[in-house]
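Exercise 7b. Backbone tokens:
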């Protein structure tokens, strides 16, 4: 039996999509457990680049099921568009299954996301504006519409009109932006496409676990964007950590056998919020350009900086990493010096652990350890010993510092650009 969880160890965009696509080759099922199309997972398969937002990477393997779990919020228009792109590229998508318990993202969620961001003024979160927060808010308020409801036209209409009434009373500016009849018509069409894929995915997964099949749980976002343990309120609205797997897929927690944390060899963040190791000068620019650090979902330039060890250690405790997968190591080639944040300084005191008090986090300054860089191109390396010595020293320190072994090193965007440690 093997249930492997792939968790973003930072603020998202760690390369989970690429890693998932690499590991999926051995999986019977790949399942997404949280988030929606705020996620953007870029994968390069046989020279072709795909940007996945809702569909897990299992889609590229016809024998593997690709599951969208109950913990997700699903925008059917975005989902169908994603399927069409994949189908046009030669992937029939017959292996997709969706939980009827997943919540729907509706057009009013997009509008409310925008209105909320506007009303936050200088405190805007920098959301992806995909309606994710408002959809999860409806779920918690128990007025959300689930995917299963979409399949019953009468029920859907009733719930939808009830929601429209509530939304209009709360958001006067919503009038005009959302046309109920158009939405009802288009969601009827979506229902017809989605209907054959809907099934009790929780039961399906439980049966697969009983048959000792291999399941890969593909995380979205990252640990620091978790609604409980992340840098609140600059987070997303779902449980992104390994804890979200049991509730987001409907499988027992003890069925999880392995948790792999995916981290870049440096750090990026998109959207607002404190980022202690951010480099706004030449180094930041170097990382952004070398790493192609522009958002997969929104195209925004990602903020870039050095690797934050406290974030990794915090994630290791929260998620219980059995291994780390280090991505984009190739991006650091050419730097004279590579820095690693090994502590924070707060009011002249050294902090060795990530502070959960956000006031402290906001005022903390990074304490760096410096490593000599390396000039060599490492994109053709096949094994650890092919890497330059200074590069290996950096990796060894990360393992020692976090107490977690590095299981894989990614040195390129293609799914097979991977060194097994
Ligand atoms: P995700 O959201 O965690 O799946 O990550 P994204 O896809 O949003 O961002 C990661 C970006 O880095 C994508 O453009 C990937 O194609 C790319 N990428 C992933 N791994 C590597 C790597 O090891 N080296 C390089 N150069 N690019 C990578
Ligand atoms: P993947 O799966 C990076 C960020 C947004 C914003 C905050 C809240 O590709 O790693 P939301 O739209 O979720 O309400 O936005 O979370 N964010 C991400 N950042 N990668 C992601 O997903 C993200 N999903 C959300 O930029 O700061
Ligand atoms: Mg991404």
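Sequence design result:
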């Amino acid at each position: 039996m093997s249930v492997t969880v792939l968790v973003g160890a930072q603020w998202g965009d760690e390369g989970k999509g690429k890693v998932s696509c690499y590991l999926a080759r051995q999986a019977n099922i790949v399942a997404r457990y949280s988030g929606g199309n705020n996620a953007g997972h870029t994968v390069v398969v046989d020279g072709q680049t795909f940007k996945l937002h809702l569909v897990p990477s299992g889609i590229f393997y016809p024998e593997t099921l690709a599951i969208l779990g109950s913990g997700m919020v699903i925008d059917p228009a975005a989902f169908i568009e994603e399927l069409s792109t994949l189908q046009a590229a030669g992937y029939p998508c017959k292996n997709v299954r969706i939980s009827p318990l997943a919540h729907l993202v509706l057009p009013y969620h997009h509008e409310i996301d925008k209105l909320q961001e506007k009303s936050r003024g200088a405190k805007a979160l920098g959301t992806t504006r995909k309606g994710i927060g408002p959809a999860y808010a409806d779920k918690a308020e128990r007025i959300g519409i689930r995917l299963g409801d979409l399949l019953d036209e009468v029920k859907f209409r009733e719930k939808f009109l009830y929601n429209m009434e509530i939304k209009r009373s709360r958001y006067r500016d919503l009038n005009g932006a959302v046309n109920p009849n158009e939405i009802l018509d288009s969601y009827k069409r979506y229902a017809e496409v989605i209907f054959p894929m809907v099934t009790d995915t929780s039961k399906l997964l439980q049966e697969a676990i009983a048959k000792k099949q291999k399941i890969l749980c593909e995380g979205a976002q990252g640990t620091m964007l978790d609604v409980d343990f992340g840098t609140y309120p600059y987070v997303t609205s779902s449980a992104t950590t390994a804890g979200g797997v049991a509730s987001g897929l409907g499988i027992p927690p003890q069925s999880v056998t392995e948790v792999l944390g995916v981290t870049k060899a440096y750090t990026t963040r998109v959207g607002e919020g404190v980022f202690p190791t951010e480099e706004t000068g030449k180094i930041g620019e170097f990382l952004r350009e070398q790493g192609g650090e522009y958002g997969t979902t929104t195209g925004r330039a990602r903020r870039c900086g050095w690797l934050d060890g406290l974030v990794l250690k915090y994630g290791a405790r929260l998620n219980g990493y059995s291994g780390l997968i280090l991505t984009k190591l190739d991006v650091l080639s050419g730097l004279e010096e590579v820095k690693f944040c090994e502590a924070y300084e707060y009011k002249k005191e050294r902090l060795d652990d990530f502070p959960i008090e956000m006031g402290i986090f906001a005022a903390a300054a990074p304490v760096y350890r410096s490593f000599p860089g390396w000039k060599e191109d490492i994109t053709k390396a096949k094994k650890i010993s092919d890497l330059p010595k200074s590069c290996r020293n950096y990796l060894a320190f990360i393992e020692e510092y976090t107490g977690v072994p590095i299981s894989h090193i990614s040195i390129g965007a293609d799914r097979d650009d991977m060194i097994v440690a």
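Instructor comment: The chain has a mean pLDDT of 97. The domain at 103-194 is CATH 1.10.300.10 (Adenylosuccinate Synthetase, subunit A; domain 2).
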